[in-house]
Amino acid sequence: MIASTTSTTRVRAFNVIQLALMYGVICLILGVILGLFLGIFAAFGALAGGTSGHFGMFAAVGAFGVVLFPILYGIVMFVVGFIEGLIIGALYNVVAGWVGGVEIQLETHA
């Protein structure tokens, strides 16, 4: 039988660059997924032959949107997510200095 113990600790500060990088990569993944769906809509719009209405812009891109949108959304979401991660990390570090940070429970197995 494995014994385990639980301890409580506080996150007092984040490495802001590392947090921004992690958040940027997560946003990149979400951007690629979102871009893929929009690219599929663009391809269907091109197949339908419609260039007016709500999806007119997507239809104008056509099947190329299946490749273009995931790349563009991924890049944009990474950049925005990285900047947002920088801001959130810096703000967390300042506020954690005031209120002590977030408590987390860690479990160790012996």
Describe the structure.
The protein is α+β, with helices and mostly antiparallel strands. It has one domain (14-95). The chain has helices spanning 16-48, 56-61, 65-99; strands at 4-11, 102-109. Strands 1-2 form a two-stranded antiparallel ribbon. It is elongated. The chain starts with a strand and ends with a strand.
**Sequence of secondary-structure elements:** EHHHE
The largest beta-sheet arranges its strands as 1-2
- Whole-Å distance between the termini? 10 Å
Please give the number of β-strands.
Answer: 2
Number of helices: 3
The mean pLDDT is 85
Cα-atom Rg, whole angstroms? Answer: 22 Å
* SS class: alpha+beta
The biggest beta sheet is recorded as: 2 strands, antiparallel
In terms of per-residue confidence, which ranges show pLDDT below 50 for 5 or more consecutive residues?
Answer: none
Strand proportion: 5-15%
Instruction: Give the overall silhouette.
Output: elongated
Please bin the fraction of helical residues.
55-70%
Write a brief structural summary:
The chain is an alpha+beta fold and 110 residues long. It is 67% helix and 15% strand.
Give the SSE map.
Layout: E1 4-11, H1 16-48, H2 56-61, H3 65-99, E2 102-109
Pick out its properties.
alpha+beta, 110 residues, 15% strand
